[in-house]
Amino acid sequence: MAMRDACLEVSPPIAADAALAAGAALRSQLGPALPVALYAAPLTGEAVVAGAYQRTQDALSAHALSSGSALRRATGGVTVRAGDGIGYLALALEDASTLMRCPPRAILNRNVRGVLQGLRAAGAETNYFGRDYLAFGVLPGVYVAWARDEQGRMLLEFFIGIERDFRVDDADCAYPEPPEPPFRGRTPTCLTAVHGRSFAFEEVVAAIADTHAQQFGLRFGEPTSPSAPDDEALRGRKLRIREDELSWSSPQPEAIGFVSAGVAVDDAGAIADARLAGDFMLSEATEQTLAERARGLPADDAPLVGLVNGLYTNDAHFIEGVKDTGSILRVLRDALAAAR
């Protein structure tokens, strides 16, 4: 196996907004000479971190928004807690198949394997059951989500429960009660609770890096300390209510959370804008593609069916966390009804 260079940046304890900013910037380092980059940080303080596509008003309560600790990350998925007792890990890849061949709909399945094996090497019984988390035994212990930019570069973010789990308090959530409990009714946990002993985050990170090196032929240099994110990058993580002129559906339950849609209709009765929001994961270009393909369509059912089926059944626009296009159609129809 030919060796490939990779970089590892390890931060001292740091606030979640700075860690998220550093993780979001990780893909900018990638290229043919550096196809893999890892960033790790033990988190401090308290923060509530929304997924990239969650609609603020739907997902987070007034309590969470007024606390000043609400942040947004670069990847999709559900809201998680980030702060004391949580370890943050960002993995950036030149493309989804950088570590191993990755079918279009197997991004998590393929690319969590290094972290999974690294946690096992560090002494933690860890499993993956095909969901948006790694489990300590059978209980969710590491939340993981992905993002893909227009160049195909991947970012995976892991929130590792070291001394505390990644659950947010009920008081911080605004979604309605789901028909099925999150995480299939399994309560998230942390390494300390499962194993009855402490884990040094630095040792966990070293094991994860070693496993990536051994399994995927990577050559890490000495761990480096990341440069501090600038003020603009930090502000970009702060979560604010997104004001828009769209008419929104109510959130509807889906595979790993909720999904909703917003639309605007012009004076001629055509769709002027359309957006999907919720707890899913997808390529960053897909959000713009939806808006572009929807613009100018008659606000009728048949064009809507063609739009949704043509977009989300395409592997390039694979959406993780939504079982089928029926849910997307329902929330878009509801949003159109609200706009009329």
Overview of this protein structure:
The chain is of the alpha+beta class. The chain has 2 domains: 4-235, 2-Layer Sandwich (BirA Bifunctional Protein, domain 2), CATH 3.30.930; 247-339, Enolase-like, domain 1 (2-Layer Sandwich). It has 11 helices and 16 strands. The protein has helices at residues 16-25, 56-59, 62-66, 107-111, 113-121, 191-195, 201-216, 231-235, 284-294, 301-312, 325-339; strands spanning 4-10, 14-15, 36-44, 46-50, 70-72, 80-83, 86-93, 126-128, 133-136, 139-148, 154-161, 218-220, 247-248, 252-253, 258-265, 271-278. The strands form 3 sheets. Strands 1, 2, 3, 7, 8, 9, 10, 11 and 12 form a 9-stranded mixed β-sheet that branches. Strands 13, 14, 15 and 16 form a 4-stranded antiparallel β-sheet that branches. The protein has a 3-stranded mixed β-sheet with strand order 5-4-6. A hairpin with a 5-residue loop joins strand 10 and strand 11 (154-161). Helix 9 runs antiparallel to helix 10. The radius of gyration is 20 Å and the shape is globular.
